[in-house]
Amino acid sequence: MHETYSVEMRQIVKQFGSVVANDLVDFRAKPGQIHALLGENGAGKSTMMCMLSGVYRPTSGDILLHGELARIRSPKDSMKLGVGMVFQNFRLVQTLTAAENIVLGEKSSFWRGAKWMNDKQQEIEAIAKHFGLAFPVNRPIWQLSVGEQQRVEIVKTLYRGASLIILDEPTSVLTPGEAEQLFETLQHMKAEGKTVILTTHKLKEVMAASDHISVMRKGKLIHSMEKSATNERDLARLMVGKELGESRTFLPRAPGKRLLDVKQVDVYADHGRKSLDHFTLHVNEGEIVGVAGVAGNGQKELAEMLTGLRTWKRGTILFDGKDLKNGSVRAAIEAGIAHVPENRMKSGLAGSLGIVDNLLFKSYRTKERSRFGFLRMGMNRSWAEGLVEQFDVRTSGLDAPVQQLSGGNQQKLLFAREIHQEPLLMVAVHPTQGLDVGATEGVHRLLAEMRDGGKSVLLISEDLDEVIQLSDRILVIYNGQIVGEMSREQADREKIGMYMAGLQVDEEVAG
Ligand SMILES: Nc1ncnc2c1ncn2[C@@H]1O[C@H](COP(=O)(O)OP(=O)(O)OP(=O)(O)O)[C@@H](O)[C@H]1O
Ligand SMILES: [Mg+2]
Question: What percent of the chain has a predicted confidence (pLDDT) above 90?
Fold first, then answer.
């Protein structure tokens, strides 16, 4: 009977010290199946996948591949058995080309010379083409977009003959267009009889792209069903274990005076290209301004400029009536600007440090947190405990390095720190990235409360649903400039999409 399953996990337990991340999990998937794995932040999804790919070993339980007991003791073992995993943080060497990264680790690859590499390159291009995964094979990784890098990772697994492909939150780093392309690729894999396991918190994607769905909660696999047997609402309830609140109706907008006034600034990106060009934007008190756009059109530089991480070259920025200091993180914090950055582990959290230290980064100078230059450790611990509880950060303890938190719980921690400073302006880039449906709702509520209390939010996101749902005013950024603007009432997906693509919108249609 078991031979019908390409993968079968039996009674899997995984413990990290006292934390039981997987608790007697039974999981099965078939060839030619796209299997979505859902669950709250910290439910144990990544842990489960990491055991299939040999990153972790189960504390107990068995893994069978194609009906046979599999001994997976390392990523190498799993690769040999036809398992390939694409992690959220890619594992590519930045200075090598895409093709070199793909063959990397093959026996004595490079000294075989140019002819060998040429043949390999053709092989790689053929695989990429077959599965609809275009990327420049000969360019170094650092010159590739995030979406392209992900394709390199996927082709790497296919090149090594994977028949089970595991993707951990693959779409959280993709633009909506790239995500659609990825799902087409997954259909190709399915047609070839491969098994695809993926996690995502976007229930729409699950309903559109998967065949079978398994739901985890608190380390247990609680449900497994055909897609046709469920719907978005039921899935949300299964994951969270309760009915979610109704979506919010917004109070009438009463914007106050101008809080942020950016006029005609130029900003350059790391590679020297101009990213913001004669850029102008303003945010009033008591409003949420959404900036929609395809990644790479200046959003990152905009957020960095406002939070002191990047300098601007000409023009002026007024904040709360005063000149904002150019390129000073401390000045931005003191002025009342908070920041949820795009990449939480790169510019938000220090992975090897514990929760208290990470929470203190922004406020250690305040009199509540330190006295005569010394941190008030006892008080800070109970303060941190309070925040962890309030924001439902699931952790094994305040001293555990934050890199051991699940992805969504890292995001919750970062958001807690930023909103806790009671900023005048929150610059929030993909603030709900990696959050489950319940936590997403919580973040939305807090942002709306900021706005209702007369504070302001600059929401930078590629998730159009989120932008439209939350923003009082929507701006569209394209090629370093704001090319379109509309109010909540005028918001129209299609129109935003056209602005995002850099198309001229007929003013009459735009109304
Ligand atoms: N290396 C580790 N050391 C200690 N605890 C860990 C480690 N990795 C994971 N955990 C714990 O195991 C639990 C499950 O984490 P996991 O990353 O599997 O969750 P997840 O379902 O992937 O969540 P998310 O949706 O937020 O990504 C969490 O409580 C986490 O803190
Ligand atoms: Mg995870």
Answer: 65
Nearest residue (CA) to ligand 1, atom 10: 404
Cβ of 411 less than 6 Å from ligand 1: no
Closest atom of ligand 1 to CA, residue 410: 26
Atom of ligand 1 nearest to the CA of 43: 21
Which ligand 1 atom sits nearest the alpha carbon of residue 436? 25
Tell me the mean pLDDT in the region 141-145: 87
pLDDT over 60 at 157, yes or no: yes
Distance CA(208)–CA(90), nearest Å, equals 25
CA distance linking residue 301 with residue 312, whole number of Å: 9
Give the span between the Cα atoms of 197 and 501, in whole angstroms. Answer: 31
* Ligand that lies nearest to the alpha carbon of residue 439, given by its number in the listed order: 1
Give per-residue pLDDT as tens, 281-328: 999 999 999 999 988 899 999 999 999 999 999 999 999 999 999 999
Specify the ligand 1 atom closest to the Cα of 50.
18
Does 44 sit in the ligand 1 pocket, CB within 6 Å? yes
Cα-based distances in Å from 169 to 41, 176, 187, 198, 302: 12, 14, 17, 7, 26
What is the reported pLDDT for 93?
Answer: 92
Q: Rounded to two decimals, what is the model's pTM?
A: 0.86
For domain 2-240, the CATH architecture is 3-Layer(aba) Sandwich (3.40)
Instruction: Judge if the beta carbon of residue 423 lies within 6 A of ligand 1.
Output: no
What kind of fold does domain 245-336+423-511 have according to CATH?
A: Rossmann fold (3.40.50)
* Closest C-alpha residue for ligand 1 atom 17: 406
Domain ranges across the chain: 2-240, 245-336+423-511, 350-421
Residue of the nearest CA to atom 6 in ligand 1?
404
Task: Enter the tokens of residue 438.
Answer: 């319940």
Strand ranges (E), 81-236: 83-86, 164-168, 195-199, 212-217, 220-226
The answer to whether 53 and 162 are in contact (CB under 8 A) is no
Answer yes or no: is the C-beta of 88 below 6 A from any ligand 1 atom: no
341 lines ligand 1 (CB under 6 A): no
pLDDT tens, position by position, 68-84: 999 999 999 999 999 99
pLDDT at position 68 is 94
Interval 227-244 mean pLDDT: 86
Distance of alpha carbon 381 from alpha carbon 385, whole angstroms = 6
Identical fold, 2-240 and 245-336+423-511: yes
Number of C-beta neighbours around residue 427 at 10 A: 27
Measuring from atom 9 of ligand 1, which residue has the nearest CA? 404
pLDDT on residue 143: 86
Q: Would the pLDDT of 50 be above 90?
A: yes
- Residue 161 C-alpha to ligand 1 middle, in angstroms? 28
- Per-residue pLDDT tens for 251-280? 677 778 999 999 999 999 887 889 999 999
pLDDT above 70: residue 407 = yes
User: Which tokens in the block code for residue 479?
Assistant: 């090629």
- Cα-to-centroid distance, 486 and ligand 1 (Å): 40
